[in-house]
Amino acid sequence: MSAFRDQDPRIHGIQTKIRVVPDFPREGIMFQDITTLLLDPKAFKDTIDLFVERYKGKNISVVAGIEARGFIFGPPIALAIGAKFVPLRKPKKLPGEVIKEEYVLEYGSDCLEMHVGAVSAGERALVVDDLIATGGTLRAAMNLLERAGAEVVECACVIELPDLKGRERLNGKPLYVLVESH
Amino acid sequence: MLRRLLLRSPNSISQPLPTSHQLLPPSPKVPFSAWIAAASPAGQPPSSCSHNCRLALRSLRCAAAGGGGTESQPLPNQGMAAQNEKDPRLARISSSIRVIPDFPKKGVLFQDITTLLLDTEAFKDTIDLFVERYKGKGISVVAGIEARGFIFGPPIALAIGAKFVPLRKPNKLPGEVISEEYSLEYGKDVMEMHVGAVQEGERALVIDDLIATGGTLCAAIRLLERVGAHVVECACVIELPELKGRERLGDNPLFILVSG
């Protein structure tokens, strides 16, 4: 579901603050840059508020954020809804015991890690990232949480690129986004 | 559940790490070597990347700014969070931080804040302690250092009404950036900030989870000062005082919650 369709008056302000940078990281890619959103305190606050309003009081005890831009949006949401924040990281960043989930990239593969013991069986979790493209990273994140016995309630992103059909790769789990970019 | 798996040693608020059966002392051959920067050759002119040992810094501090707060009114209780008042929140924050020996390499005692993030009360208290200090001080920029500075910086920025500026490793920020090189134990690294993110005259904080030698924080300060911002203070959850990062910051104030 997209708040854009609901036409919450805050959405327009958020959307106009996202900067599109052509040919980054490679030619032909239109990069959705959320850093300009973070420079506008009202728009950044509205972004967080929209997620918090949706998830507060829903008995969600875990907000998992995907490195690195998920670390910007996840913790404010976690703090506001009283959930713990769990960072999901690239390999070898988390100290101590981790579980790993490999996922496929356009060329090659990558790996996401989560701390053993961060999440308990039966906990209700959100996965947060700035953007969903193909959905590969989010799917890996969901797998990590589910392997630890958590229930992924929803994936939440600021931006969706619907043409890349990431929504279909989430094993039927719901996806909530604020803006779409075609 | 996580605590049962931990090799726990509480971080004291104001004392060095206690030695105990739970805690491996650092190897005397390699004390915190991961964070000690290599010295730059004496006699070479300082460049943007030569601020990597205290000898060079005596002639060229990473910034000459004095005091926090306004030019004439530094922020109170500089340096340590409420140490003298013994804020009751600090004990829980300190004990929620996990120490992992021999990470990323042997002899290093890694201060892991992820366990603090799992304690909702401790995480909230951590943010509150910073917000209470910085709210209403005319700070318009919170700059956070990738990646753990991204966890603490945004909640602080949101609460004090400032913008959040991510300071990133190379080639992560799209569009035009300015770059600052800094030294590591072996070799160098680069920190980047977006052109136009910060305006001249803005008052800024720099946030990271931990200060070790201070090299990363110095690079962050230089980036902000290059665009004409005034760095009011650097704020970290943890300080490793033996590595003398505070000294490396020179006149730039440092505020921390716990000492590792």
Briefly characterize the structure.
By secondary structure, chain A is of the alpha/beta class. Chain A is 31% helix and 31% strand. In chain A, the strands form 3 sheets. In chain A, strands 4-3-7-8-9 form a 5-stranded parallel β-sheet, with helices on both faces. In chain A, strands 1-2 form a two-stranded antiparallel sheet. Chain A has a two-stranded antiparallel sheet with strand order 5-6.
Structural notes for this entry:
Chain B: Keywords: Cytoplasm, Glycosyltransferase, Purine salvage, Transferase. Chain B: Belongs to the purine/pyrimidine phosphoribosyltransferase family. Chain B: It holds the Pfam family Pribosyltran. Chain B: InterPro entries: Ade_phspho_trans (IPR005764), Adenine_PRTase (IPR050120), PRTase-like (IPR029057), PRTase_dom (IPR000836). The complex is a heterodimer of chains A (182) and B (260). Chain A has 182 residues and is α/β, with parallel strands linked by helices. In chain A, helix 4 packs across helix 5. Chain B is α/β, with parallel strands linked by helices and 260 residues long. Chain B has a single domain, classed as 3-Layer(aba) Sandwich (Rossmann fold), CATH 3.40.50.2020. In chain B, helix 3 packs across helix 5 and helix 5 crosses helix 6. Chain B is globular, with a radius of gyration of 18 Å. The interface between A and B is large, with 42 and 43 residues.
